């Protein structure tokens, strides 16, 4: 399954697809009047149902509702459908992502932070059995400013004049997090993934 984020509406041609797909999840706290689903359920290779949900952080992002306003209901809905529940928390602030993981500890399998593109060194399993990482990192070109050609990003920051961003090419890496869990959804381990390592 795939999760989106604050760029969910960037490609208008994707909107009709979002209304029909069972596999793509958009943040639950974007407008309820916009298309797309905020909860999807897939099946693991051993047959265990796995629910994927996504929320967006409040700080510096445009949300229709604060993440903590909607998270409990969303988690309840996901848990009714699957023992394994993954939350992608797409947010800017490390504090907001850590607070969400703590709030959900013991109620979901994992709270995986995204959006800031830089993998954090805090992959862990919390005492209640929830795996967490503040940011899973970026799969893409790391010889860049979070994926954008460095010279274009710095030009915009130095001058304040909008520049058309282009993706960089060098230093491509896969980053993410590998989580092992029991069939009841309790996380056993949470390890960052980085390929190649340097
Ligand atoms: Fe983002």
Average of the residue pLDDT scores: 96
The number of helical elements comes to 4
Work out the helicity level.
Answer: 10-25%
Bound molecules: fe (ii) ion
**Are there runs of 5+ residues with pLDDT below 50, and where?**
none
Rg estimate, integer Å: 17 Å
**For the largest beta sheet, what order do the strands appear in spatially?**
3-4-5-6-8-7
The geometry reads as globular
Structural class determined from secondary elements:
alpha/beta
Distance between the termini: 27 Å
Q: How many strands? A: 11
The biggest sheet, with number of strands, parallel, antiparallel or mixed sense and barrel status, is: 6 strands, mixed
Estimate what percentage of residues fall within beta strands: 25-35%
Order of helices and strands: EHEEEHEHEEEEHEE
Describe this protein's structure.
- The chain has 198 residues and is of the alpha/beta class.
- Helix content is 21%, strand content 28%.
- It contains four helices and eleven strands; from the N terminus they run βαβββαβαββββαββ.
- The chain has helices at residues 15-20, 67-81, 94-104, 150-159, and strands at 2-3, 24-25, 39-43, 49-56, 84-90, 110-114, 124-125, 131-133, 140-141, 172-181, 187-195.
- A six-stranded mixed beta sheet has the order 3-4-5-6-8-7, covered by helices on one side. A three-stranded antiparallel beta sheet has the order 9-10-11, with no helix packed on it.
- α1 links the parallel β1 (2-3) and β2 (24-25).
- The longest helix is centred in the middle third of the chain and has 15 residues, at 67-81.
- The two termini are 27 Å apart.
- Fe (ii) ion is lined by residues 5-6, 90, 115.
